[in-house]
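Progress against Task 2.4 (sequence-to-structure conversion) is shown through the following example record, which the project officer requested during the mid-term review.
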Amino acid sequence: MNQVVFFYTGLEPLLRIIIIGSLAYISLLFLLRVSGKRTLAQMNAFDFVITVAIGSTFGRLLTAKGVSLAESITAFGVLIGLQYIVSWLTVKSSGFADLVMATPTLLYFDGQFIEKAMRKQRLTKKNLLETVRQQGVVSLQNVEAIIMEPVGNITIIKKQKFEKSTDKSAFNNILDVDDFNSHQARG
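Structure tokens generated for the chain above:
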């Protein structure tokens, strides 16, 4: 039966954590640096899973005596390699990108909240108004659109003050493009 230790088990486990933790940290930094900026960019769902898995692997290495540094570095390499392959495939194949990555969702456009999209994203008007305020916008009259981006952040697009632009190309890949197009047809 394992003995339960509350405060101190000796110097050896502490030294192991210091030495292995430092070496693993340096190895992880090196692997992340080699893998490129994309590994550390804003996260979609796959990036989030990889990040959590790397953190879990790092934590297990530090606390589990039976896990070697070589095994953990191999796990880091596999996870970062998978992330690299998935991001490479998303660049090369739009079908794969659609499978792995979410699309932006239009939540508000030209004075109208898009209730269906808000329900789908589990957001309320209060949530969106809070985000608008956080961006320093006082009135929705100054807001052209509110979009939930694929990484989960919300973008506020302010109305142009001096010229009315008909080019809305930034809206091209939005999930609820039908809502956008029907609104455009009315306006």
